[in-house]
Design brief:
This protein has a single domain, classed as Orthogonal Bundle (Arc Repressor Mutant, subunit A), CATH 1.10.10. A hairpin with an 8-residue loop joins strand 2 and strand 3. With 95 residues, it is α+β, with helices and mostly antiparallel strands. The protein contains 4 helices and 3 strands; from the N terminus they run H-H-E-H-H-E-E. It is 49% helix and 13% strand. A 3-stranded antiparallel β-sheet has the order 1-3-2. Helix 2 crosses helix 3 and helix 2 packs across helix 4. The two termini are 17 Å apart. This is Transcriptional regulator. It comes from Flavobacterium psychrolimnae.
């Protein structure tokens, strides 16, 4: 199914990546769910609290750490804005 392709591609990409934890996976899946709710656009604009709620993450520190690492590892491109009235921009990278 085409809707599941990004998730399937992500799991193939992380299969041998020891750096990826369950928290990274939770955030990535939450990002995909958020993206689906916004019409599958690329990039998406999201506020931290929106993704944290979906991923069931309580700590902003954990969220920022995992988002930064997903960016560094090449799974997403994350352009953070710490402005309260503007969401961060998140690009999905083809795996």
């Amino acid at each position: 199914m085409e809707v599941l392709k990004p998730l399937s591609d992500f799991f193939k990409a992380i299969e041998n990546d020891y750096r990826i934890s369950i928290t990274h996976i939770g955030i990535y899946v939450a990002l995909l769910q958020f993206r689906a709710g916004k019409g599958f656009g690329n990039p998406i604009q999201a506020y931290r609290y929106e993704i944290m709620d979906l991923a069931k993450i309580a700590s902003p520190k954990t969220y920022y750490k995992c988002m930064r690492e997903l960016n560094e590892y090449g799974y997403i491109i994350y352009k953070s804005t710490r402005k309260r009235n503007q969401g961060s921009t998140i690009f999905f990278v083809d795996q």
